[in-house]
Amino acid sequence: MSARDIVITAVILFSLGLGFFIIHSIMSTTVDSMISVGEINESEDVVTALEGIDKITAKFDYLILGVFIALILGIIITSWFIAGNPIYVFIYFIVIIMAVVISAILANVWEEVSQASVFGTTITQFAITNNILMHLPIYIAVIGFIGVIVMFAKPRE
Asked: How many structural domains comprise the chain?
């Protein structure tokens, strides 16, 4: 059912965003503390490898954007291939409303977690993820209505 995919999209985006945010914060703190140790700092190869970790975790923001676009395209494609009877539009709208409410809760949790002092300035590395998750209810509503249009407005065969 394509309506259920809207809720799953919100949960996947939140889970990956929060997970990558926490992993980035932990890894950058760990790498910084390891590089400050004299024995580790003596080896140029080790310092290069540790800096590589920072470069990889800095790309997590773009990974969330890719997952976001992939989920939107997945909902559009599955909405096209699922046969939709106009009788079920009401149920689809109810599921979209529930998804928006759930995504509002997830957006509030994201705001609380990302603004915590424990994470410092990690949020500056996650500009795209922060935008997506802070405005998650709006994005979910738009994605849901696009799914409704694609599923129920296609020509009869």
From this structure: 1
Residue 115, phi then psi, degrees to nearest 5: -90, 0
Q: How far is CA 2 from CA 50, 79, 99, 140, in A?
A: 43, 6, 12, 13
Q: Is residue 75 in a domain?
A: yes
Task: List Cα–Cα distances, 112 to 106, 115, 119, in angstroms.
Answer: 10, 6, 11
From CA 106, how far away is CA 126, in angstroms rounded?
17
The type of residue at 47 is V
Average pLDDT on 42-51 reads: 82
- Please tell me the pTM assigned to this model: 0.88
Of 68, 126, 88, which Cα lies nearest the Cα of 1? 88
Higher pLDDT, 156 or 120: 120
Residue 157 within any structural domain of the chain:
no
Inter-residue contact 151 to 92 (CB < 8 Å): yes
CA pair distance 78, 92, nearest whole angstrom:
14
Q: Please report the sign of the dihedral spanned by the C-alpha atoms of residue 65, residue 131, residue 13, residue 75.
A: negative
Alpha-carbon gap, residue 85 to 67, rounded angstroms: 29
Domain range for 95? 2-152
Residues belonging to the chain: 157
